[in-house]
Specification:
By secondary structure, the chain is mainly alpha-helical. Helix content is about 85%, strand content about 0%. About 15% of the residues are buried.
């Protein structure tokens, strides 16, 4: 802007110089030498060219010399039309989903995000800002209201949906993939450990249920030994043999249960009844509320401690090292931007148009003139100098035609 003002003074000074040169050359033609006509031709044409360009440049933004000449002060008078044209230009050339998608085709959002998280200064500011945002959001009353709505919505969704077929299909898929076998292995291990820890209780129960006469000859001890050793051997066989008949019976029982959950009305009705009783139980609501409180506490602790920073660094490493994750992030970013443009592009264009229309004439004049002031003054300088050269060329041409 300052350079533009200096150029304006130079261009105006050059006009004054041309006017003085015209007056001086006109006097010199009659009093010094007729050849000053060349200087007069240059100065005259330069003054005309400079004044014409001054008028054109000035007429864009205001009335020349304050005189309301028609078709001057073009920009202040046309600011509404300029706003509409600018908005239309943005819409047609930038804010269309196809244009945005094409321009974002090579944009690596994952790399940009990783770079922010990896830079200590900017990444630290981002993490601190996100941490403060998490803390503020989690502590607002609105957060509790949102969680309550989520809880109510989830509960109502569970009430409306029949869970028995879903459970049946899940169980059926687990059996088909063999994912139930590790669960059975853990049950066998748990039963074996329970037998070891409760052996004394088993022996006491056998002794309690054996008559005193049999206890005299230690029959109760032999029965207890047989029972404990038999169970221990059974559990060992089950653990060692994946095709044990009891395992096959368990598989068949689970398969029958999966079928009943999907197709047997009695089983489905029983599951629905249990589901409704659970959802109506206040303990379930208390558990969900406690879950939210623990989640919120965990978020606050993480956001206020170092864990959040470590998560940011881990995310940056993942974005750098995992091409699939980076590709997914880039695709999500492109879809988000393109979707935003598709949904709100017209609103953005309308905002631009209304913002320009809301400016007063002085504001838009100052902003646009300040943006191109330097170039406009070069137009004036060029018009003055080129006009002078054209004047010399015309004078030479007239002399040549006259001599011819």
């Amino acid at each position: 802007m300052e350079q533009g003002l200096r150029l304006r003074r130079v261009a105006t000074g050059l006009l004054v110089l041309m006017a003085a040169l015209l007056a001086a050359s006109t006097w010199a033609m009659g009093h010094v030498h007729p050849q000053f006509v060349w200087v007069q031709a240059f100065a005259e044409a330069a003054l005309v060219g400079g004044l014409a360009d001054w008028f054109a440049v000035t007429a864009l933004f205001r009335h020349p010399m304050g005189v309301p000449i028609p078709h001057t002060a073009i920009i202040p008078k046309s600011k509404d039309r300029i706003g509409d044209a600018l908005a239309t230009f943005l819409k047609d050339n930038f804010l269309t989903p196809s244009n945005v998608a094409r321009r974002l085709d090579g944009f690596d959002a994952a790399n940009a995000i990783a770079g922010v998280l990896e830079r200590p200064a900017s990444g630290g500011r981002v993490r601190r800002g996100v941490s403060r945002l998490v803390v503020q959001l989690a502590e607002t009353p609105a957060a509790g209201a949102v969680m309550q709505r989520l809880q109510d919505g989830a509960t109502q969704r569970l009430r409306d949906i029949e869970v028995s077929p879903l459970l049946g299909r899940m169980l059926e898929a687990m059996i088909a993939d063999g994912r139930h076998r590790p669960v059975i292995d853990q049950l066998i291990l748990w039963a074996n450990n329970a037998l070891d820890s409760q052996e004394g209780l088993i022996r006491a129960m056998v002794e309690e249920r054996t008559s005193w006469m049999l206890r005299l000859v230690n029959v109760d001890e032999r029965i207890a030994n047989e029972l404990v050793n038999g169970l221990r051997g059974l559990f060992a066989d089950l653990a060692a043999d994946p095709y044990h008949p009891l395992r096959e019976r368990a598989d068949q029982a689970l398969a029958n249960l999966a079928f009943d959950l999907q197709h047997m009305p009695e089983t489905r009705a029983k599951v629905e009844r249990v589901k409704r009783e659970l959802l109506s139980n206040p303990a379930v609501s208390d558990w969900l509320e406690g879950l939210w409180n623990r989640l919120k506490e965990g978020l606050l602790n993480m956001a206020q401690g170092e864990g959040f920073s470590e998560i940011g660094e881990a995310m940056a490493r993942s974005l750098r090292e995992d091409p699939q994750l980076a590709g997914a992030v880039n695709q999500l970013a492109r879809r988000a931007v393109v979707g935003t443009v598709a949904d709100h592009g017209d609103n953005i264009v309308k905002l631009v148009s209304e913002t320009v229309k809301g400016w007063d004439a002085a504001t838009i004049t100052d902003r646009l003139e300040g943006a191109v002031l330097r170039d406009l003054q070069y137009i004036r300088l060029n018009g003055t100098l080129i006009g002078g050269l054209i004047g010399l060329a015309l004078h030479a041409a007239l002399l040549a035609f006259g001599a011819g």
